[in-house]
Amino acid sequence: MADRVRAEGENAARFAHVREAFEQSFEGGAVGAALAVTVDGVQVLTPAQIERANTEQSNGCDEVLAPLHTRFGLGFFLTQPMIRFGPNPRSFGHPGAGGSIAFADPDARLGIAYVMNQMQIGLPGDARGFRLITEVYEALK
After folding, report:
1. What tens digit of pLDDT does each residue of 63-78 get?
2. 45, 51, 135, 136: least buried by Cβ within 10 Å?
């Protein structure tokens, strides 16, 4: 897929850094690393930052992802009917290109990241990732 991302002429130089980030995101690093709340026992986000991340800032039809309805905190999607980050309302995260999904659930003290090696079509995530989320929460009961 990454070889389909091209820019020509005067835009090529400006686009090079975007393409590099885009290609790296297919390796799973961008989505998973960006949403880590605790890494090796070190807290990355403070309780105040977590509260700000899951405080609603916008809710409605997304002008960029139209007709997708989105709900955002500061920098993160908030759980919503079409993109559910588990059963707890304070979960926040982000779906990624082609079906990747990563989020933190501060109430369950849980973080999940799902990336795959085959790009899927669709904005709101891949059904396999949402099934995995459901199974993880079922296993925690």
Report:
1. 887 778 889 999 899 9
2. 135
The helix (H) or strand (E) run that includes residue 73 is none
The contacts of residue 92 (CB under 8 Å, 6+ apart) are: 53, 54, 73, 76, 77, 78, 79, 85, 103, 104
Tell me how many helices (H) and strands (E) the chain has.
Answer: 4, 8
With beta carbons less than 8 A apart as the criterion, state whether 14 and 111 touch: no
Its pTM stands at 0.66
| 53 burial level (CB within 10 Å; 0-12, 13-18, 19+) | buried
User: Which residue segments constitute the domains of the chain, with CATH numbers given?
Assistant: 2-140 (3.40.710.10)
Question: For the stretch 23-33, what's the b/e string if a residue is b when 16 or more beta carbons lie within 10 angstroms of its beta carbon?
Answer: eebbebebbbe
**Residue with tokens 């405080």, as numbered in its chain:** 55
Q: Largest Cα–Cα distance in the chain?
A: 56
